[in-house]
């Protein structure tokens, strides 16, 4: 199979896709947190912590952040079976794949053109996740599978093998994605020697031969002792004969201590760059499960809430390879908040999403310590972190529509006028930006295309006045309770700069309304979903909109 051919998984329920409601986000300033002073000029304050179902939260981010996320790191549930006690193996696997598919599709849209996705996983689903990722990102956008050494001692109670590693699957938005290189280590530099006291410093002998055919790569050279050398059969000199002797005159050809060895081309330590990332990440470089548990104990003494948190050094290595300072990092399975803590210390902007109550009991206190400079563990010392910056806390708004006592879908009573305008702007694909001077302008899609949301029942006189104020050079989408005195067809002809739509009728079929949980805790999922029938267009008791036909 060629790399361009598409390989797809099939599973129970794959054809079913949720019709996600693009919720708005509501900031809670009492949960947001910022440093009392700036520590550096580069302090970042626009980070986001979102409390709510991560699939709905990803959908909520889509309009504002599509194409802006440089790196997404997720540590999803591994589907080991413990969370699926009430389902058979086939169904549990299918549910997991569907829930991951729905999230990965949005994450791909959020990634920048030079963005990448990093997923930690174990053997149970790694290979299925690889094929699922190929289907969503394309096989040419699969980068690599890293092996992270998570264990630092064998587990003798294991029935077959003691598992020492997890995987990190890496996908990119575009096929030509390139990772950033890592700083050189003492171990990497130690292989460079200087046996001939070369004034240019330590060097490493390089193979002078190459397998790739080179038109000027077939010649014979005579060494200092008169011994002759030619490339082996099927191989070629890397450089032309002219360049070979130029390198020799510059002292860059090594003939061995006695001058009779096969020639090598010197590679000087002073001339080599940073290190290409390798696919095996040892516990010395990226930490282990024991490392992360110790980090959590230091932050929350006596608390064993997290069995397998990820060490800060693992996240540090991911962000060194995938991002630069100031880039945006996303984690939609925030867990204990390691991604945000590490990104903050490394000067990256971040967004984290978490549904569990540990968002409040663990993530927020952890981030507060980071911001206050009171977290001495993890990568704090290596990053030179002194505190600073902040984050804003958001929760998902409730569903825009709710059912009244008669089963009709009506606007949620928790929505005020501003929330309603923002939600409908998002549903219609407009940027919510209410004007301080134009009463009819709630948002825009272009410089000349605007939207106005109102619960009024508009008359023909009101529409005429509105059309006159908007003018011929602009267009306005009007979402209203109703309009009277003119039919829809006549309105379009009479006021060509206005497009009239009634709410909530215009959005009834758009989404799954009133659903707040798409989590990977499958015990919260219904066994079967009933199709939602659009409510009648007739006026109904309890609605915030008293619709009247013209």
TrEMBL record:
Specify whether Kinase is a keyword of the entry: no
Question: What is catalyzed by this enzyme?
Answer: a 2'-deoxyadenosine in DNA + S-adenosyl-L-methionine = an N(6)-methyl-2'-deoxyadenosine in DNA + S-adenosyl-L-homocysteine + H(+)
Does the record carry Magnesium as a key word?
Answer: no
One Pfam family cited in the UniProt record for this chain: N6_N4_Mtase
Q: Which InterPro entries match?
A: DNA_methylase_N4/N6, DNA_methylase_N6_adenine_CS, N4/N6-MTase_EcoPI_Mod-like, SAM-dependent_MTases_sf
Taxonomy, superkingdom: Bacteria
Keywords of the record, alphabetical order, are: Methyltransferase, S-adenosyl-L-methionine, Transferase
The protein's Enzyme Commission number:
2.1.1.72
What are the DNA methylase N-4/N-6 domain coordinates in residue numbering?
Answer: 69-361
Locate the region Disordered: 528-550
PROSITE patterns found in the cross-reference section = N6_MTASE (PS00092)
Q: Where is the signal peptide?
A: none
**Under which main EC class is this enzyme filed?**
transferase
Q: Which family does it belong to?
A: Belongs to the N(4)/N(6)-methyltransferase family.
Record-given protein name: site-specific DNA-methyltransferase (adenine-specific)
- Say which species the protein is native to: Thiohalocapsa halophila
